[in-house]
Amino acid sequence: MVITYQGDNYLRFQSGATTILVDPTSQRSFRGANVIVNTVMPGTVSRPEEGGEGERPPFWVEHQGEYEAQGIHIRGWSVGNNGKEEHTAYRIRFEEIEIAILGHLEKEPAADLIAAVKGVDVLVLPGGGKPFLAPDAAARAVRQIEPGAVIPTLGKETKQFLKELGQTSVSPEEKFVFKKKDIAPGTMTVHLLSA
């Protein structure tokens, strides 16, 4: 699997011909995508009415609930509403890899959400602080979830988050390339992806 970070909370997960986009910022990026997952509603882009030439539109997920498309299993939980936007967290099972996307989380996740995503292979959560989860709260959530790998998003300044995790020498990576066997449960290695 290859994970690339496009900025904000926009990520691309790709394995072979299958692509999942999380919080894309432009419809131009939809080409070739199989599934689009939105952690914020209303999102920055609207649902495509149809795919490109000969293409089906991507399967669109934007609320809590359970979904399945092309062998990808998705479960979403509401994590609150800030008055303008609804925020949703997801657990995605894609080619035997378990991924948790905590998205635009503004406060510590509830115990039931922690339990629902505990032990995932890859955890994506805000690591840049205000207006999202504070660095110490984000680090506490990581320690409770015990993922194999952590990808912080939503902030250019992740220094405090990394310090809270005792990971002061993490170098930015262009992409995170791995197989299921490469992820050791509970190791919590941090992958700082550059946009």
Put simply, the count of helices is 3
Shape: globular
The amount of helix comes to 10-25%
Number of domains: 1
CATH H-level superfamily: Ribonuclease Z/Hydroxyacylglutathione hydrolase-like
Taken in chain order, the helices and strands follow as EEEEEEEEEEHEHEHEE
Question: Which strand-content bin applies to the residues?
Answer: 35-45%
Q: The biggest beta sheet, please?
A: 8 strands, mixed
CATH architecture: 4-Layer Sandwich
Structure classification: mainly beta
Radius of gyration: 16 Å
Unreliable runs, pLDDT <50, ≥5 residues?
none
Q: Average pLDDT across residues?
A: 90
Q: Report the count of strand segments.
A: 14
- Output the CATH topology: Metallo-beta-lactamase, Chain A
Distance between the termini: 18 Å
CATH class: Alpha Beta
Mind explaining what this structure looks like?
- There is one protein chain.
- The chain is 12% helix and 35% strand.
- It has 195 residues and is mainly beta.
- It has one domain: Ribonuclease Z/Hydroxyacylglutathione hydrolase-like (Metallo-beta-lactamase, Chain A).
- Strands 5, 7, 8, 9, 10, 11, 12 and 14 form an 8-stranded mixed β-sheet that branches. Strands 6-4-3-2-1-13 form a 6-stranded mixed β-sheet, with no helix packed on it.
- The chain is globular and about 45 Å long.
- The two termini are 18 Å apart.
